Model the fold of this input.
Amino acid sequence: MAAHAPAPAPAGPTPGQLLGAVVNPPVALGLLVANKIWDPLADYIGYPCDRERRIDDHKQAVLRVIAMKDDFLLIGPCPPSLQSRHWIKCVEQLEKTFSEIQEKYLRGGYFNTCSCAREAIKETKRAEELAGQYKDLCIDIKARLLPVNVSQWEDLSLVTNSYKDLVIKFINDTSGKARLLGIWGMAGIGKSTLLRQVSKSRSEFISDGDDLIVLIVDTGSDYSVAKVQKCLIGLLGVTVAADVTEAGVALAISNRLRGMRFLVMFDDLSGPINLARIGIPDAPPASLKCQKVVFTTQKQAVCASMGADETIHMVCPSEIEAEKLFNHAVGADILKDKRISSLSRTIINECGRLPEALWKVGRSLSIKEKPEEWEFAVELLRLSKLSMVTYENDDLIDRLRVNYNDLEENMKNCFLVCSLWSQDANIPINDLIQWWRGMNLLDELNGHAEGYAYVRMLLQLSLLERGENTATSNEDSHVRMNPMMHKVVKQILNARGVTWAPNSSWRPPLTENSWLTAQIVWASQRDVQILSRKKFWTKKLLSNLNVLIARWSITFERCQFEGITFLDMKEVRLGAFPYAICSMVKLQYLN
Done:
């Protein structure tokens, strides 16, 4: 008998059949209409119900667009179209509004947070629109040629020739009195370039048949005796056993150099180094042989600690020399455009006439033929975004900041106060010390002497420069901060979120709350406008301010400033003396 398979069970309805049974055309139309009505209704009702999620969604959307902007600037530091520049400005406005909403939301309060949630929804949609425009902008970016790779030190030698002559004079001195030369100056001034220029100019201090050897050691910030020794034995061709001690290596180096004519140059010392411990032999007093050591550093104190017989202080070149270097880096053809030629002088000033900055910025702009690209480069430099101009993750800003990082906290604050003057301005030393005292950064009894000591130390660390000699100032009575150092300070102030920096691109205007909580304030015009808002000052409130600096007239009646000890309102035009000042019982300084 044949076997038959059991009949299959009747198949159930497919998903499509089920969906068709439930969602027939009338029902589907009803759901669509309900959805259209519900979406805006849910948005409105949802403000008080889901505030935290809406704020978080807004944050994620904005951060995504900011990341797109950063990627875009890395791809094309100078946007090629008006559309892309407009997009960047819209993103920057989006960031500003985001900060305002976040700050407002943190204040709390039911109605306040509901309002923030409503604004967050609108800004989230705006962020999504900007994100959608990003793909079109990427298509708009054209391939760009990178600048020609030219040896940096060959260009910078245009402004180091006079220093080279001084070094060669030191090398050729056979009196035996000068054996150790220290060269100091701020980062980017051309110290490394100078050593390589000297090395290439050996014909000026080595005659035919001379056996003098020239060694250059790049020490860097992480140098050690062992690392320097390893470099020297490699240059000298000295062989030592793997297990030999530091003293043994020093003996091998000393034996190799003793009796020879040599010039050893250490580049970029961040601190003093013991030459005898490395193995550099002492020349006999009566020896006329050339056994000399040259080193570079940012700190004058290193020259003193190492007992330098002579020192050279490298400073920024003159305006004529700086313009010559920058024009050489850019090329004559591009500078034929009158607008570009005018912008070049602005960029030279923004670079603080610092040779390395001039060379790198000049080479990057050598391929930019449109004035709009140069204008955008100026904007980036003013925002301390050097890497966006030079096409590289430049470490110049980091190297300029090294000596600041080594300061103790109180002296860091003293240095940052110098940025309250405009970049490259002549700063009266007496005024600077008076401000330090007013901000309680100096000792009350010995503040003036301590202030002068701080000024000298900042000069010796290449963080400040001597003032310019003019009809009203000189290098002994004034100091100045290089514009490139000013950019370093901008980044520091931005990270700290200080309130005593004047209103600028890196410090938003004060809020009503910060006027009450801040202890030190340099008030801008917008800050003063916030202070005078009638809707805020419904009653007289007590401020915690200790130090107030303003260049605009302030309505003191709006708030009690009884704790102020330092009040500077220089050049403010007052119709009458503010009697509220008489209630400032702790006031010690009034200008």
Summary: The domain at 407-494 is CATH 1.10.10.10 (Arc Repressor Mutant, subunit A). The CA atoms of residues 305 and 585 lie 48 Å apart. The mean pLDDT is 79. The two ends are 120 Å apart (CA to CA).
